[in-house]
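Morning!

As promised:
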Amino acid sequence: MAKVLISNLNKKFDDTHVVKDVNLEIADREFVVLVGPSGCGKTTTLRMIAGLEDISSGEIRIDERVVNDLPPMDRDIAMVFQNYALYPHMSVYDNMAFGLKMRKFGRDEIEKRVRRSAEILGIQALLERRPRQLSGGQRQRVALGRAIVRDPRVFLFDEPLSNLDAKLRVQMRVELKRLHHRLETTAIYVTHDQVEAMTLGDRVVVMKDGVVQQVGEPLELYGRPANRFVASFIGSPAMNFAEVTVNSGAEALWAEAPGLRIKVPPSKSEPLRRHTGQRVTLGIRPEALRLANGTDPSDYVFDSTVEVVEPLGNEILLDVRAGSHLMVARVDPGVRVKVRDAVRLAVDPERLHFFDAKTETAI
Amino acid sequence: MIEGAKWKKWVWFYLPMGLFILGLLFPFYWMLVTTLKPDGELYRPWNHPLYSPFWTSAPTLDHVKNLLQETLFGTWMWNTMLIALVATLISLFCGVIAGYALARLRFRWAGLLGTAIFVTYLVPQTLLFIPLAEIIRDYRIGDTPWALILTYPTFLIPFCTWLMMGYFKTIPKELEECARIDGATRWQAMVYIILPIALPGILSAGIFAFTLSWNEFIYALVFLSSPEQKTVPVGVTSELIRGDVFYWGSLMAGALIGSIPVAFVYSFFVEHYVAGMTGSVKG
């Protein structure tokens, strides 16, 4: 168990700057997820923590000790790889025992630890098998077992679930979370899947082009995204965006675009006043939209045409067009609408997001 | 596989396969039949009424006896075995280590170095033996097994390096990284993880190197002169062809017995050898 402190971390491969000034403080026993599109530097950051990549500049500390120049073996970490990296010529037992053997544990101690870890993961029956005789899910468990058997200070996960099929992935996700509760070891987890990030992480770090965009608890990222990228990356279906102009009316500000006129709620009017007459980006989550009933104030409704209906069972996604904007609304499954119907949608004024059109930061 | 009527399978599979095997095995049969024929039958002209090139009615072991008693064949076998084994071991050791470095370590000129090593393999031996002869003379190791043990690696090391480099590249680097996180040094990761996985590749490189050294002719012909130092290919051809007299029976007996060790090595390692050709880590 350990704290991990990353300060001003940079990585350059020849001319490409893949990790830029990353600062991160990971508390003891915390589960932190690095998430972002491919090429955002998340895996490189993880590999630098593991000691598999040199650090161009900056510092990584594990429990106050600078580990920049420490080889991987001396950092007391365990890593689970995307392709599991099981040693194909060894049995499951030997795979799990390898790290302990390298660290000169006694035979009895090794046996005890391997059995205990196998029990935690439910793979006692597989110990004599070779990796190639195992299914994807079983290999995944062995890879996990190999990590927990050593009782390291930090777990590193590099997209460990992305080689599994969808159903198994959901199942293993829950198991991972349960395992973390049980072991209480600091964990750093890399994924490109925002759902995985949200469900697993105590805190989530969103990265793009080597730069940390926002660090926060899952619901904080969802509710108060720091910029347009985080807003669009977190959440499925993604947030709707519309380019609007801020105009001042009689007693309030209005966000206006062709076919769309929405009053700026009082909570947002103060910061938006500086943008009067300028273009900003309006963001609306699909679930902040619903079909209007007669009682909705006219300030927070707009008219649209249904283009696609996606009935998912527990909800219906309506792909609508309002003026030139395409939006997705998440509505009640009881709603009866057809393609080309004209519908009036109401927005929840407290769940409107505004972003600067140039810098893309939240207003 | 070929689907449909049975005759199709015969015409398109068994028949071509049979012809192919026949073609490959015929030289061995020819060696065998020539070895066992008495001289009287061997030198019968083609228009003789009892001419039978593919068969013998009076098999004899005279040629084999002649080969083993009248020539130094046993010594040649021993020389060839020693030279081939030691040269193979040296080349394999260097090839594995160089191949690993070229495949795994990120250093300047790695790509260029790999190509350069390959280019040295392309220099024909028929040119290289001239400067090598100078070197052999300068170091005074002519007419000793060392002349071959030290020169065979000039073409075996590039060959082994390239074969091993390709093989190491097929092994996911995560295996090694995982081992290093597990507490192994780079060296331990190589010895405990990478080399065992690369065993099929190492064996195929070894078999190839052994075969190449066993059959090598030109260096052995140039660098060795006394009969008791010679290897099988050179010994057989130089001692059993005197002027324009060919001792066909003993010549073929030598060729046949000389090819047994290679055939043995192949059949012994055939499974690993095939695995080595078709890639390493599956799933």
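The interface with chain A takes residues 172, 174-175, 177-185, 188, 192-193, 196-197, 281-283 of chain B (CB under 8 Å).

Hope this helps with the figure draft.
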